[in-house]
């Protein structure tokens, strides 16, 4: 199943059978019998994995006895996904009634759909939506979501509600509040305050998650707000999570209304900094993008959302471009599939980067969580090696054709359509076991979510 042993097999690429001290942690676990798969560079090999204290302690070789096993026979074991840009608050939008008039542009869609939805969120809906989004993400194999939250009529404490939902499900998040001038000065100030409050909480070690400075998009940010966001990011030494150039509106707004250029506004914002996450960048010029990625920032590309909003194809080429679902759902494999086909259609040479972009997300979360691993590990969180974080999936998939490192992309894009995330272990602990959430009662969540969605859709009528 795993092809011939070669220099691309995991065991030969990363021999890691040094004798280890028997882990004393009571959370030690062996994942046994599975075929390990690293997506990029593609590597495969059969080996058992010993986990303890949230990390991988041994790959291959004889496993110490007396430790519980997770039987992964006939399955693949692969690092869990990071969703590089999403909106958990949109998780109750599936199937909601269309707006009164058909939106024609991105600005129309924002105003008539998403800004009606976010205004209708109250404290309880923020929490329920985040819970549904986190549950879906975990079941689809995400260990980390980079979330961008907006609830302009329930700002204060909203990031704590998102955090609580992530904790209930058991995955990790990098959170921010979407600061904007679109709802007036008071709510802009509220957004800045909520970002600062949660940044302080993370800095004080009172959260297991991470925080960025959140902002909507240049088109809804006044110059003094750019300054305030920049100062907040500087004082907390974090990046800024913002939509940029999803279509041409950010450029036109800068040139026609503010008499400058988008790239000048991005410099004023101080966007080029370590940890920044730029969502979309469909119309972002390559020079501005390079400034951001060279400084240690990331771009989250969101193929399905871009298709849904008819804004074109993001063609930025960089190892610091990762995949995000932009609130469409929590399905990173679905996103990867769309990325592969959309870029194949566009003939821009980026389809073959699909797996590298899943791995970019894993590297991104490792950086944002400050996981310092030995240099030789290369891309932490995307490798199954001693010392890497034990965010691992057990994937049920019976390939009907030979599967090797050289044809892995085809199996992931086409074959894994029929795969199932059986287990999702975050920090070595099950959050999904045999396809079912471990910590959340799914039946209860479904009932609660349906009731909440009905209430949300009703409330939205007031904001169309
Ligand atoms: Zn977005």
Any overview of this molecule?
The structure is a single chain. With 464 residues, this protein is α/β, with parallel strands linked by helices. It has 2 domains: 10-80 and 376-433, Urease, subunit C, domain 1 (Roll); 87-349, TIM Barrel. The protein has helices at 10-13, 106-119, 123-139, 158-169, 185-203, 223-236, 249-257, 262-269, 286-294, 303-308, 332-346, 354-368, 408-413, 442-460, and strands spanning 29-32, 35-38, 43-46, 49-52, 55-59, 69-71, 75-79, 81-86, 142-147, 172-175, 210-211, 213-215, 240-244, 277-280, 298-301, 321-323, 392-396, 420-426, 429-433, 436-437. Helix 4 (158-169) links the parallel strand 9 and strand 10 (172-175). Helix 5 runs parallel beside helix 6 (223-236) and helix 6 packs parallel to helix 8. The radius of gyration is 22 Å and the shape is globular. The structure holds zinc ion.
Total individual domains = 2
CATH topology (level 3) name of the largest domain: TIM Barrel
**End-to-end CA span:** 54 Å
Number of strands: 20
Ranges where pLDDT stays below 50 over 5 or more residues in a row are 1-8, 11-15
Proportion of β residues? 15-25%
Spatial strand arrangement across the major sheet: 3-2-7-17-18-19-20
* Rounded average pLDDT: 92
Tally of helical segments: 14
Amount of helix: 25-40%
Oligomer: single chain
- The value of Rg in angstroms is 22 Å
Global outline:
globular
What about the largest sheet?
7 strands, mixed
CATH superfamily of the largest domain: Metal-dependent hydrolases
What is the architecture of the largest domain at the second tier of CATH? Alpha-Beta Barrel
Structural class: alpha/beta
Q: Which CATH first-tier class of the largest domain would you pick?
A: Alpha Beta
Q: Which hetero compounds are present in the coordinates?
A: zinc ion
